[in-house]
Amino acid sequence: MDYKFTYDNKEYILTQNNCDGIFFADESEVNGLSVDMVLNALNEGEEVSFSNEYYADKCSCDAQEQINKSYRYLEYHYYIYTKDNEYIINTISNEYKNTSFNKLFGLGKIDDSYIVSVTVCPSCGNYSINVEQCTV
Length: 136
Ligand SMILES: [Zn+2]
Hints:
By secondary structure, the protein is mainly beta. It has one domain. It has helices at 35-44, 101-106, and strands spanning 3-7, 10-14, 19-24, 51-55, 66-67, 70-83, 86-90, 112-120, 127-133. The strands form two sheets. Strands 3, 4, 5, 6, 7, 8 and 9 form a seven-stranded mixed β-sheet that branches. Strands 1-2 form a two-stranded antiparallel sheet. Zinc ion binds next to loops. Residues 59, 61, 63, 121, 123-124, 126 line the site of zinc ion.
C-alpha cells in the first residue's frame, strides 16, 4: 500500500521503503500498528491534508534550508485508540464514522488514545511515523 499526495506542485509517495520507522514517545507502546496500517489509514481518510511543521532536527538527506534554527517538514496527524496497548481503531477510518471515543470507551472496547504524526521531509520525501500518548 502506497499513499500519494501533492504539496506545492510536488508529488510525494509514501511507501514501506522510504519510511524511517515508527517511533514511540516516552513510555508509549502500541502493539499491532504497522507502516502499512498507517498508509492504509491515510488512503481511507477523506480529509487528509499535510501542512508545514518545524523541528530542530534536520533530515539525514541534509538538503533542508534552516529557518529560525529549525527545519521544515510536511506533517499530518490523526488519532488511534487502543485497548491493553493493542491497536483497535483510528479516527479517520470508515469504521469510526458511526462511533466515538466515549461510546467505545463506555463499552470497554478501548482504554487509551494516541496521536499518530506522519512527518515527511519536503526535500527527499522520506518520512517517519511518531506515536505519542494523548488524552482525548
Ligand atoms: Zn530529507
